[in-house]
Amino acid sequence: MSADLLQRGKQIKLAVFDVDGVLTDGHLYFLEDGSEFKAFNTLDGQGIKMLMAAGVQTAIISGRKSPAVERRAMNLGIPHVYQGREDKLVVLDGLLAQLGLSHENVAYLGDDLPDLPVIRRVGLGIAVANAASFVREHAHGVTQARGGEGAAREFCELILRAQGRLDAANAAYL
User: Is residue 59 classed as helix, strand or coil in its secondary structure?
Assistant: First the structure.
């Protein structure tokens, strides 16, 4: 892990996640009745819980709307959920004004072009391993794991490690 990523991670007070391709594998599953379902990784969920327990706020900003995302966010206790929003930077700016934070206090995990304006603006902008190549090129870092396969856990642990809280977060389960 680079010294630059660790330095950027020290100032993070809000972690923001895209959904499709980040918290999921990016596949869209539709049933015959038109309803959809998504598969979320439990390792990612545990990482988000550990991050929140360490005092880092969390949010979801997604370009698509899905009841599954609402349920997942509620199950994890993610308080700020914005769906159906392609204008992610506008949404983030509104949230930052509400929380009294600056862009430097934000870490964002994304995978595709709608995430790029946020990735480039925040203090720690990370792309998942299978993100679009143009997004990976402009991110501060890239996870080793693919979206929906532990990338969010890796992102959470990066922030916790940078803030010197990862050992304590893990030790809570001993």
Answer: strand
Whether the predicted pLDDT of 104 surpasses 90: yes
Average pLDDT, the chain: 96
- Encoded tokens for 106: 């934000």
C-alpha pair distances (Å), 99 with each of 36, 75, 94, 105, 161: 33, 22, 9, 11, 24
C-alpha–C-alpha distance, residues 167 and 64, integer Å: 35
CA–CA separation, 84 vs 36, rounded Å? Answer: 15
In a domain, 36, yes or no: yes
Q: What is the CATH number of the domain that holds 53?
A: 3.40.50.1000
- Condensed to tens digits (0 to 9), the pLDDT of residues 1-59 reads 799 999 999 999 999 999 999 999 999 888 899 888 899 999 999 999 999 999 999 99
pTM: 0.96
Alpha-helix residue ranges (DSSP H) falling in the chain: 3-10, 42-53, 67-76, 88-99, 116-121, 133-138, 151-162, 166-171
DSSP state of 83: -
